[in-house]
Each structure stands twice: as structure tokens, then as C-alpha cells.
Amino acid sequence: MKTGAAEKELARQLEAVYDAGESAAVATLVFEALTGLDRSRLRLQRETGLTDEQVLRLEAITRRLLQEEPVQYVLNEAWFAGMRLYVDPAVLIPRPETEELVEWIVSDLRARGLDVFDKAPNGADRTEVLKVLDVGTGSGCIALALKQRMPRAEVWGCDVSDEALNVARRNGSTLDIRVDFQGVDFLSDAQQTLLPSVDVLVSNPPYIPLKDRSSMHGNVVQWEPHTALFVPDNDPLLFYAAIARFCNRRLHTGGVVYLEIHEELGAAVTELFRHAGYANVELRKDLQGKDRMVRVSRI
Ligand SMILES: C[S@@+](CC[C@H](N)C(=O)[O-])C[C@H]1O[C@@H](n2cnc3c(N)ncnc32)[C@H](O)[C@@H]1O
């Protein structure tokens, strides 16, 4: 079968689980992975035939996609902040909203003129000037993107899931980005003491109340790790409260906290931090116009 026709046929089949636009986008991702060609080369080689091996692989991929398994898990890759990350069902698939959180941090720190962006020249003093902690690191996407953009910062990522930490460490080593990933149950005050004092804390914690589960798309609920997604209906701010407790002890004066939030929890999260004595509280919308990020500082 020719590549172009096979891609069209896959898109058609995927309309059983996705809308037409998504089906075409997923089919293109599959064919990029299958052929090793980017989308413009793929278009130029529409008439090239698939090898027997490619046909077999395509059949296996199609079967998994039709069971609503996210394409990122099927292909074991997701793009985040220009990095190709390994992902599997142990970790949340990194989302574009989270890239916006990373951009907010980087642009703030640039504006502060901090000496963290350039690699120290050979032989120069490699003293790291800024300590950053990513809570609930999952694939390591936030921590790795920050360390890549700010080579002279010292970056930690923590997670309760050993499987997620394996993925994060694998990404760090494949990309050759040095982040210290640690296994910590952040909800335990005792385990929080294993973590360093920092200047910047960032987190995209679990924040979806369990009651929302029934209205979510099958490919999220059936496949993505529930420890990454859900919080109890009666305590949706659980992780933000734990972050505030940690920051009271371990965030340096002048330190800043950046959080991803549920679109309906903007007022509650900002109030929690105001009440805990934090300043410069700012709620920001994502590109979809939904309340999605909060920044607060410790004075
Ligand atoms: C919403 S995911 C975010 C993953 C990644 N930072 C991202 O933005 O794609 C939340 C992460 O928090 C982790 N997590 C859940 N409970 C935790 C706990 N008690 N302590 C530390 N991490 C936890 C999950 O394993 C998951 O990796």
C-alpha cells in the first residue's frame, strides 16, 4: 500500500474514536513515526510503498488507537517545550498549558536578570545560583525544560510514583539534562523534609475532583494514571495546601511559587496562599482563556 493512501485510510478509521481534525492529526503523527519522515517529506513521498514490516507495525498501532489508547503512549513519545520525551502509561502526557507555565517562569527570571541562562564557560566557576523544585514531576517535563533553558540553575523533581521517576530519569539521561529526581510522597510532612530549600517551586499537581471523571474523554480516564489526575471531591486543594506548608519552611524569602490549577479553582487557590501570608498573588489564563496558572511570592 502507498504511504499517502494508507495515512488517509488510518485517518478514516480513527473517526470511530476522534473527530475528523484529530483523526487526521493523529494519523500524521503515526506516519511520521512509522517512516521517520517529517510531515513535509511525508507529503512529498505519498507514492512510496510501505514495507511489510511497516504494514505489520501499522496494524498493531491501529488496533491500539482504536481502543482509545493515546497516540503518545502508542508511539512512546510526546513533545514538550521543543524536547522529545519518552512517555508511557506511568506518566501524564505533558500538555501545552504546562508549557505556558514554563514560559512564565523563564520570562520572569529573565526579567530579573538572573545569571542562570548561559552555560558557564569552560573552566569558569560553575556555582549554581538558583534552586528550583518541581513537585509531581511525572515525565520530568517541567523540570527538564527549566534545566535545559537555565543550565546554571540547580533543579530537582519529585514524585510519589517509582514508575514515573523511572520515566523522568530516562528522559534526563536521553536528553543529557541533569535534574535530580527524588521519590517523595509530598503529602507527608515527614517526607517533605527530604527535599532541599529552594528559590522557585513549580507544580502541576493532581487537581481534578473525582466527580469530574464521568465527563472526561475515555482516552484520558482509561489510560492516564489516576494518581496524576484526581483528588478527592471533599479536598480538591490537598496538594496546594501541602505546597503552602512546604514553602513556609523551605522556600527562601523572596522565593516564588508557580502552580497549574483547575480552571474552577482560581479563587480558592489564590485565597489559600493569600491567607497563608504570600504576596504578589497573580492568577493567569491559558491560551484557551481558562484560569490555569497562579504565581505567588514569599516576602
Ligand atoms: C498532573 S501530574 C503532572 C506531571 C508533570 N509534572 C506534567 O506537568 O506533565 C501530577 C504528578 O503528581 C504525582 N503525584 C501524585 N501524588 C503525589 C504525592 N503524594 N507526592 C508526590 N507526587 C505525587 C503523580 O504521580 C503525577 O506524576
TrEMBL record:
GO terms for biological process: methylation. Pfam families: MTS, PrmC_N. Substrate binds at residues 204-207. Its EC number is 2.1.1.297. The keyword Iron-sulfur does not apply. Residues 131-208 form the Methyltransferase small domain. S-adenosyl-L-methionine binds at residues 136-140, 159, 204. One of its GO terms (molecular function) is methyltransferase activity. Keywords: Methyltransferase, S-adenosyl-L-methionine, Transferase. It catalyses: L-glutaminyl-[peptide chain release factor] + S-adenosyl-L-methionine = N(5)-methyl-L-glutaminyl-[peptide chain release factor] + S-adenosyl-L-homocysteine + H(+). Residues 9-75 form the Release factor glutamine methyltransferase N-terminal domain. HAMAP family: RF_methyltr_PrmC. Belongs to the protein N5-glutamine methyltransferase family. PrmC subfamily. Methylates the class 1 translation termination release factors RF1/PrfA and RF2/PrfB on the glutamine residue of the universally conserved GGQ motif. NCBIfam families: hemK_fam, RF_mod_PrmC. This is Release factor glutamine methyltransferase. It comes from Flaviaesturariibacter amylovorans. The gene is prmC.
